[in-house]
Amino acid sequence: MKRLGLEGRRVLVTGGSRGIGRATVRMLGEAGAKIAVHYAREAEAAQAAVDEAVAAGGAAEAFGADLQRPEACAALVEQVLQRFGGLDGLVVNHGVWEPAPIERLDAATWERTLDLNLGAAFAVAAPVARHMRERGSGAIVLVASTAGQRGEAGYAPYAASKAGLIALTKSLASELAPAVRVNAVAPGWVMTDMSRDALLGPDGPAALRKIPMGRAGEAEELAGPIAFLLSDLASYLYGEVLCANGGAVMASG
To answer: For the chain, give me the number of helices (H) and strands (E)?
Structure first.
């Protein structure tokens, strides 16, 4: 892990108390980073993620914030910057995934999903990007989804929000280069608290059969690509979407 060159680097991970975020926090701890673990409601889970990162050899601290509110996004970033003295990396991982078949899709569901998955992603990334550009270095990783590349029936708001994240990635990458690197990871099916019921339900086997690997990913298998994109090993990657989906979607955009 030391080859990643992340020792002592300060990284904010939104949605760091569970799933892909928690696995990323743990891996960054193994790499010797100092991690700000954001959580919305699960303070105990966030503290457990902090403890895992510290036990792995890193440093970490939990920060609570309801990112549905734009002012809370700005306050979170400011709090972390004050506490850590700056940021070298950002992982935008928070989000919601709610069933939204068109027959039942209402404006509230659409707005709630877009506000959190895309609006709050921008509201967190923008002040961090300004800080990194001013200091002359940094790396940002947005966690998108295969749904943003091919769509997802019954989850139009989620797919639209993740497609927006991909566009945001490419826009920020071109705007902030060369000082700040911005890239995305696009997971496919990953076994997390958010997706477990769907994967273990009646439609789960059919979804898994479409994956060349023959199974869903594990959160740790996404943490690796995220840590890589934060590291200097990815120093020539700008605006890329790293597809980590077991081969389910072989897309380049």
So the answer is: 10, 9
